[in-house]
Specification:
The chain is of the alpha/beta class and about 650 residues long. The chain is built from 22 helices and 22 strands.
Length: about 650
């Protein structure tokens, strides 16, 4: 799929041509002197206006005495509020508020002086009022004029770059803050002919934003596209809900008109892309654009300045966790991964994004005690985020012994080492497949959750698990598989027409995992709100449509039957778990029924013996017996 249809028109080069660097530097250096001169002139002019330019010798001497006091107070207020530091060409409403604040502070200070000074030494109130108005407009006005001149210059240069051919006529859906930002940047940097906004807010109808009129609501899209001969519609809502986004895309598809989208709010906030990186709608937009409260302050306190270990760092979820952890400036970031290529790739990515952070790539198997113990001894991680696991359901059905080694015994080993070396927090990444497990993978993750509770009773370390469903685009998941099948001309294979799954974007899942890590006293299983489940058949149809094909005509969809260990519908909780709210609206706590410590120890001993003996069928029977909610099928010796 093509990701981008229009690129920003080299903004760096544009700025260099529009205004020489020496001119901007000169303006910055002369700005304080300019402010002092304007403040001086404003006070003198206020005095002259007060006395109709007939100033007596006494008035002139008072002016000379009072002028430096007034100017220093006003300039001091500008300095304290950083008003003198603003770049002139970016002055806007925020800077206006700062200037208002600066002159409010200085006026209050002058009024206090007016009260304290004897009558004969006071500044006339009429002079004060006129001075404030003249000083404010005199200091802020030139900045506004400079910005206007700069924007006019940019407009002229952009117009000169436009070819003689017709430009794309576009409509923007969404006249909120993201839409305003997109309109401004598109007008400056993209060769689009923006015809106006569409917005469902009745208060915005027929208003003008960034020189563009709000022409109607989404219901008027078919009419507007036809009358204005629109080539393309751009959804400029950075945090639209899944339902609303899908509704807008369906409207555009029914017209039909090409629909594109600005990046998500998460991508913009993280500095991943610019607003102007307009791209085709992707399946991630339909499944994962719900607003997320990032809660940065809690995560910052949790991670900043600490030694953090992320296992499975070369995987899709582990890699995103590592990237997000790096943003909070830990003292050291340990990247634990047993696949050499994956470890090399994530380390290179992180060093390119944040080169100053100390990364420690650890090529290691989390199930190998001597290696993991040496890492703990040398680096003493304070927070351990355990994302390393075997996760593919059918593959683990055929390799049950390896699933138990990695998902049960390696988890127990890592959790025990975290406790022995006095780590503050241990976070296990779990899954919705741990609920009423019908697969070996799900059962091993359920046991991992029980081990979290078991270890929390043994050590001072705070142990928690975070359970969520499928993440969009993770390694080996259904979406990359569908995309590959579509690129090969089909067919797209769906195991059952009624199969549904929960979906979440990788960045959102990682962010919520870190949020959950800041909560609880230990032993909790945090359950993420995954929204509404998505029908896999509809997902396949959406992907085919977004790829430019017609389902059933260009690309066939074939029902292949449920694979071993799969369920029609995954769950995020079981009836025995009491769900309670947390401070985050998308994170809940599921309190697992406690298992006595001797039973957990018996479980580990028995599973260890069965794994060593290679008795897979007995393992399945034993897990079904130990976990009453488990429903593992017997697979036969061919899968041992």
């Amino acid at each position: 799929m093509q990701e981008v249809t229009q690129h920003p028109a080299a903004p760096d080069k544009e700025h260099k041509t529009a205004e020489p660097a020496w001119l901007n530097a000169m303006v910055r250096r002369l700005a304080p002197l300019s402010d002092l001169l304007i403040l001086t002139f404003a006070f003198a002019l206020a005095y002259l206006l007060r006395f109709d330019f007939r100033v007596t010798t006494d008035d002139l001497s008072r002016l000379v005495y009072q002028l430096p006091i007034v100017v220093l107070i006003q300039f001091g207020a500008l300095v304290l509020t950083d008003g003198h530091r603003f770049l002139w060409r970016y002055v806007g409403m925020l800077e206006l508020k700062t200037f208002v604040k600066a002159f409010l502070y200085s006026t209050l200070a002058l009024l206090v002086l007016w009260i304290l000074v004897p009558y004969e030494g006071r500044i006339p109130l009429s002079v004060l009022i006129m001075d404030v108005l003249l000083a404010f407009s005199g200091t802020f006005g030139p900045r506004v004029l400079w910005r206007a001149a700069h924007e006019h210059n940019e407009e002229m240069m952009r117009a000169a770059r436009v070819t003689n051919g017709p430009r794309k006529r576009v409509l923007l859906i969404g006249a909120g803050s993201a839409g305003v930002l997109a309109a401004r940047e598109i007008r400056r940097n993209l060769d689009f002919d923006v015809r106006g906004f569409v917005d469902d807010d009745p208060r915005k109808q027929m208003t003008v934003i960034q020189k563009f009129k709000v022409l109607g609501t989404s219901q008027h899209l078919p009419q507007l596209v036809r009358e204005l001969e629109i080539d393309e519609v751009i959804i400029s809502i950075a945090h639209a809900s899944r339902e609303n986004f899908r509704r807008l895309v369906n409207i555009c598809n029914s017209i039909p008109v090409q629909v594109q989208v600005i990046p998500s709010l998460y991508e913009i906030l993280q500095g991943v892309v610019q607003v102007t990186r307009v791209r085709n709608v992707q399946i991630e937009d339909l499944l994962g654009r719900d607003p997320v409260d990032l809660g940065e302050e809690f995560i910052g306190e949790f991670l900043a300045g600490k030694v953090i270990m992320v296992t499975g760092a070369g995987g899709s979820i582990g890699g995103e966790l590592a990237r997000q952890v790096a943003r909070y400036h830990p003292a050291k970031l340990l990247l634990v991964e047993r696949a050499e290529g994956a470890l090399f790739e994530i380390e290179q990515q992180l060093r390119a994004e944040l080169p100053s952070l100390p990364y420690v790539p650890c090529l290691a198997d989390v199930g190998e005690e001597s290696r993991m113990r040496s890492i703990f001894e040398r680096h003493a991680p304070e927070v351990v985020i355990h994302a390393a696991a075997h996760k593919h359901v059918p593959l683990m059905e055929a390799n049950a012994l390896e699933a138990i080694k990695n998902n049960v015994f390696a988890t127990h080993l890592l959790g025990r080492l975290a406790g022995e070396f006095k780590a503050e927090t241990f976070i296990l990444i779990s899954t919705d497949k741990a609920v009423r497990p019908t697969s070996i993978m799900g059962a091993t993750k359920r046991i991992g959750e029980l081990l979290v509770q078991h270890l929390n009773r043994q050590f001072a370390t705070r142990y928690v698990a975070v359970r969520f469903g499928n993440v969009i685009g993770s390694n080996g998941s259904v979406i990359p598989l569908f995309r590959k099948q579509i690129s090969e001309g089909g067919p797209v294979t769906v195991t059952h027409q009624d199969m549904v799954r929960y979906f979440m974007t990788i960045p959102e899942a990682a962010q919520l995992v870190l949020q959950a890590g800041t909560m609880g006293s230990g032993g909790e299983i945090f359950i993420l709100d995954m929204g509404k489940p998505v029908k896999i058949l509809e997902l396949a149809r959406d992907l085919i449509t977004l790829s430019g094909f017609k389902p059933g005509r260009d690309i066939e969809i074939v029902i292949t039957g449920i694979r071993p260990g799969e369920k029609l519908c995954e769950e995020l909780q079981i009836t025995e778990e009491d769900m309670s709210k947390t401070r985050h609206p998308k994170i809940f706590i599921g309190s697992l029924l406690a298992y006595p410590e001797d039973e957990i120890q018996q479980l580990l001993t028995r599973l260890g013996a069965l794994v060593n003996e290679g008795k897979e069928e007995e393992i399945r029977s034993y897990i079904n017996e130990f976990l009453p909610e488990a429903q593992l099928a017997q697979r036969g010796s061919s899968h041992a």
